[in-house]
Design a protein that fits this description.
This protein is about 40% helix and about 20% strand. The chain has helices at about 5-10, 40-55, 75-85, 125-130, 145-160, 175-180, 185-205, and strands at about 20-30, 55-65, 65-75, 90-100, 115. Strands 4-1-3-2-5 form a 5-stranded mixed β-sheet, sandwiched between helices.
Length: about 210
């Protein structure tokens, strides 16, 4: 059994199986998944069909190579889903930030919506509306503690409407809009870095020419 999954079981050992719980974990996208342009669509499709039948709600956030997922449901359903998630080779370096009983859900939509925290892909309008996310960027959730994670989720709840939620369509700026035709959001960052690297080499070569 995965050690991280085992620690969650231990943290909830005194909680009844039918108790409503919240689980928040973080992970890193795997190297092979960075080349998969359909990874988020696949995750959303799988989550939609599975979560509806299990009455599990939540949100999936991605940025800077990190995933943060919050899932809510009864303890037995959440632990079963966690085991399934932690066996998924599309991501790695799992860490549980929150595992506790809750009185009510923060996310009531059973579709696993996705929020992309790549600020440079947002339109000016999106940036203005999402100013509350600034303290959490660049997105490095592996370094967060429970209080910081809870603050982040509270902000996400207030932004749980277009254009921030990918279920309603990602808002791209002009450059991002061009890149979406050749790369997924998680790949576009790598493309930009490569382009900047090439431009830097050209500039250096021109200076010493």
């Amino acid at each position: 059994m995965d050690a991280c999954h085992a620690s969650t079981i231990d943290a909830l050992k005194d909680v009844a199986e039918d108790t409503l719980v919240r689980l928040v974990y973080v992970s890193r996208i795997s190297l092979t998944s960075r080349a998969d342009v359909t990874i988020f669509d696949d995750i959303e499709d799988q989550a939609s069909s599975h979560n509806a039948s299990q009455n599990i709600t939540g949100i999936l956030c991605y940025g800077n190579g990190h995933f943060l997922q919050c899932i809510e449901g009864t303890k037995d359903k959440i632990l079963a889903l966690q085991k399934r998630i932690f066996e998924d080779k599309r991501h790695k370096l799992f860490k549980v930030l929150i595992a506790k009983p809750i009185a009510e859900r923060s996310f009531t939509d059973w579709r696993m919506r996705s929020l992309f925290l790549e600020r440079w892909l947002w339109s000016p309008a999106t940036k203005a509306q999402a100013v509350q996310l600034s303290p959490f960027l660049p997105f490095r959730p592996h370094e967060w503690h429970e209080a910081h994670t809870s603050q982040f989720l509270n902000v996400v709840q207030s932004l749980h409407n277009p254009p921030h939620v990918r279920a309603a369509g990602v808002t791209y700026n002009a450059f991002g809009n061009m890149l979406q035709h050749v790369a997924a959001p998680h790949q576009a960052f790598l493309l930009v870095q490569a382009i900047l690297g090439v431009l830097t080499l050209i500039a250096v070569a021109w200076m010493f020419a």
